[in-house]
Amino acid sequence: MSWQARCTSLLKSALRRQRMEQDMDAEMRFHVTSYTEDLVRSGISRQEAERMARIEFGRLEPIKEDCRQARGLRLLDETMQDLRYAGRMLRKSPGFAAVAVLTLALGIGANTSIFSIVDAWILKPLPYPESSRLVSVFTADVKRNQVGSTSPADLYDWRQDNQAFETICAFSTPIFTLMRGDQPEQIVGSRVNAEFFQMLGVRPQLGRGFLAQEDQPGAEPVAMISHALWQSHFAAERGIVGKLISVNGRSTTIIGVLPASFHLPLMGRSNVWMPFAFSEDELKSRGLRYLDVIGRVKPGVPFTRAAGSLNAVARRLEQTYPATNKGKSVQLHTVQEEIGKQGGSEQALIIFWLVGCVLLIACVNVANLIVGRAVNRQREMSVRLAIGAGKARLLRQLLTENLVLFLCAAAVSVLFAVWGVRWIAQSIPHEVRQYLPNQGVLQVNSETLLYTLAIALVTGLLFGFAPAVHCWRIDISHNLKTGTSRISAHSGGTRLKNSLIVGEVSLALVVLVASGLLVNSLLRMYASDPGFNPNGLVTAQVVLSDAKYNTRARVTDFYSRLVEQMQSLPGVKSAAAVLLIPYSGSGNQTRYAIDGQQPAAPDELPLVRLDVTTPGYFAAMEIPLVRGRLLSEEDRQETLPVAVINQTMAQRHWLHDDPIGKRVRYGVNLKSMLTIVGVVKDTKGQNETDLAQPEIYVPHKQLPARSMRLVIRAGPGAGDLANGIRQATMAVDKEQAVAEIQTMDQMMEQMRAPLVVVGKITSFFAGLTLFLAALGIYGVMVYSVAARKQEFGIRMALGAARRDLVSLVVGQGLKLASIGMLIGLAGAFGVTRLLAFMLYQVSPTDATTFVCISLLFLAVAALACYLPARRASSVDPTIALRCE
Amino acid sequence: MGKQPDLLQGTLDMLILKSVSLEPMHGYGILLRIQQLSEGRLAIQQGSLYPALYRLEHRGLIKAEWGESDNNRKAKFYRLTAEGRRQLKAETDNWARLSEGVIGVLKAVPEKS
Prior knowledge:
The structure holds two protein chains of two kinds.
Chain A: H1 2-15, H2 17-41, H3 46-57, H4 60-70, H5 73-92, H6 94-123, E1 134-141, E2 146-148, H7 152-161, E3 165-172, E4 175-180, E5 183-192, H8 196-200, E6 206-207, E7 222-225, H9 227-234, E8 244-247, E9 250-257, E10 272-275, H10 280-284, E11 292-297, H11 303-320, H12 322-325, E12 328-334, H13 335-343, H14 345-376, H15 378-386, H16 391-427, H17 430-433, H18 446-472, H19 476-482, H20 492-527, E13 537-543, H21 552-567, E14 572-578, E15 589-594, E16 607-613, H22 617-621, E17 625-628, E18 642-646, H23 647-653, E19 663-666, E20 672-680, E21 695-699, E22 707-714, H24 722-732, E23 739-743, H25 744-787, H26 789-797, H27 802-831, H28 847-873, H29 877-882
Parallel strand pairs in A: 5-10, 7-9, 16-21, 18-20
Antiparallel strand pairs in A: 1-2, 1-11, 1-12, 3-5, 3-11, 4-5, 6-9, 7-10, 8-9, 13-22, 13-23, 14-22, 15-16, 15-19, 17-20, 18-21, 19-20
Chain B: H1 11-22, E1 25-26, H2 27-37, H3 49-58, E2 62-68, E3 74-80, H4 82-106
Antiparallel strand pairs in B: 1-3, 2-3
């Protein structure tokens, strides 16, 4: 390839510059000497021959220069020269250089930090071989437009009857009770199909993976453990494989240790993996959907065909089992997409666009500074043009200067990026991080640095070019004749600056409005009433093993005694156990019908949240009773099945009626019946946005639940309850552990984390945006005021008051700002609906936010105009008039 | 320098390629060879030879090596590369077509009516 030859030749000449110069010299000397000798041989005197040879060869220096140019060296020389000149120019005006580099570094650094998130969570492929073929498979409810988990029976039909997948595997993430010596411990584990790790392409670091028969009913229990658990619980002992541990009261063989690098965010921080042990009954169950499913599509099979293949199975199941499968189809997402979505890829993308705007704003500011300087350097440029520099040459030099500025900024920005990435990673709560790729660890790496360099070059070329082109239009003779470096207020420089500032203001408004909406959401979220009193509440999770707690009486007895034990702990005011606690993220719904009313078709029955509590729950949570009575210890298995409902449920069915004494049917085929005895106030549901859902509370003695959460209200000075809770549990059952002991506040923070993190980040950038925009307006006003000094002098001489001048300048600045604001508000109006999924009780076009942000911006803009205006008006007219 | 016609743009490159295709030679030798072959009809500004040589070398059409000249001096010898051979062939064909065309036009005689 000839361009390769050219590059090598240029490189060789550049690196061995001296050698090349010597060669060139020797070669030409040889030519002249040879010619001289030929002339002497033809009879001309040596002196005359030497003279003739030199004349005919021509002047040496221009020829050499042509040779250098032929090698491409001239471009290199000139670029080096430009770089040196750029360095000198920047050193000569350190103020300009510092402001420009810092502004840009902030903008570029912000982008690098956010890009490192986008890169880690969205762009980087998963660490499994051919990970693009891994898909998450969901059972989709067509009518409700929801996707969800899958039942074991459906899973095995999908596995058998499709042609598009190599493997389809399910997993669930239950809590396991592990015995560590005689201390029970609850840890997050997973149940998986035997082929699960093979499907992902993950090999154990020690031991073996699961065998095909190990997820069949009746198989001996085996487990694989995480690298972390191997280190923390087994001292990284290499002989661990084959040892027995007690999981859920059964002795289980450890068969393998997974590598430290393995982490599937969809499983959270799972530490023990065991094969499914479905009973024959579970394998037949279709209605209970609790499995998450991942499949590996066969090579070369397109996504749509894979989905089609499973949907064909789903349609057949719909016809065969209408009771459970009517309206159920299948939806596929790539695993990468799914992990990204859980990790907040949508939020990250929104912030990515916002910081893009911040960078543009920073660039506009710097472009304005450059234009201002370029105008002041018109005389320098005119002189250089007049003495023969080409315009293209000058343009290239200005561009080089600007690129140097942007590249310096890129270097400084790395510091900001490192700091920013650390800040973002730290603001994500620990519990949330385990669901993030790479455990939420973010770093500035070679890819992000490459990105930094790329945006610095692109913005540098773009924003360095515009001001440089501006110099193109210089009128040499005019500038030299007038001998002035100033230009009139209406020249092209001002026009360019004004349009830049309008663009900047409109971008700033979009960023400000977006973050205003998010901050507004945050405020409303913290001000909203959760329906209970979270202060001083401590919660913990208890999971009873089904092998040991295999009768109703054992379960209810355990929880009744546990609550008693908790209540006797020092400092505890009240305690209770409950199936579903607000903000826990989990839900449990049942279809129901009002007794005495004609029920709807089976698949159109309404859904209600069904909660199971010990009687003291409402007192412990401080949920007020509205009418009727609360649940009591006397509501037992043999007494009338009763329920307390919430206000939303009461209003839905008995708006003008008393719900007390009314009966509700629920459960499979609506076989169970409840009598309503009381109405309590609403609380929040699974999370912050889960509001005003109908809910039914039933007493645990009438509907026992093995997994319950403890709620304990501590009085002042109760101290750390964690140990007390553990001991109280072991006092009831010495092999029973509790997990996730945390305060209600911590739980709420985890649920609020996405909005809080996004709100924090965007309000930081909003602050930066406001500052940069103000700086931009200020800069333009200072410049325009300086250019009109003489005009102000005349106005004052003619009797204008200082106040008139101030209002003249401020008015002019605000006019520009207002144009930008109008464009920005219109833009914001158009794009904020992209934020809707993050907003809490705030509409994307919330008028209050729009108005408040506009007023705030107007105030800041007025201040940015006022300061230069005041300075202009304080000039002595005689000095102003004389200074030209 | 007498009344010799100026060289057409780009022709010098072709002449250099042709000269070095016969045998490796140094810059002065190339100059003499062109004058000899053209029987003194083509004049080349001596100095302008060198930028052309450097350009051709930069494009990878010729390659330079230091060696001994006839009069036992160190001289830089140029020889044709494979790429240069292809280029020379292409330019020769091109030139032949061009000159045939030009001659055809110039030979035209007025048509008799």
